[in-house]
Amino acid sequence: MMLTLSPATVISQIRPTVESLPDGDYRYRDSFAIDRPFREIQFRKQDRYITGSDSDKRTGKSYCFRGIPQHNNIINITVAIEISPKTAQKTEWKLAPGNPINFDRLYPLPAGPGLELYKCLTAFLPNLKD
Q: What domain of life (predicted)?
């Protein structure tokens, strides 16, 4: 009996770009490993905007953002920085320009309940009437 080996066939998975995703809630990470810190982005795509949170479990830093999808990037980012609330009922936000976010090295996960996402959506509520 003779065995012949042929080169492995690589089937690349075609992932949709962030721009081509339908409206909805999404979650991406830079790793599938659960035993190490990771970066996670949760966002809602609605009409021509993406609003979400970017959390880095390695550094403990997170921020809210809003931008426009372009291919596999989010551009024209506005970052919302939470300011200590003057009252317990109302959080205040400071808006500032942010850097584009690239999704080429991030992996989609099923969208889960996102308290961070909800908080970020409220940060941009007054501005959603563009």
A: Bacteria
What pTM does this model have?
Answer: 0.78
Residue 108 contacts residue 28 (beta carbons within 8 Å): yes
Whether the CB-CB separation of 65 and 54 falls below 8 Å is answered with yes
- What residue ranges do the domains of the chain occupy? 17-124
Q: Which of 43, 51, 47, 46 lies closest to 67 in space, CA to CA?
A: 51
What is the C-alpha separation between 36 and 58, in angstroms, rounded?
Answer: 9
Torsion of CA 54, 60, 116, 72, to 10 degrees: 10
Of 29, 30, 25, residue with least CA distance to 52: 25
HSE value, Cβ hemisphere, 13 Å, CA-based, for 33: 7
Closest CA to 34 of 126, 125, 121, 109: 109
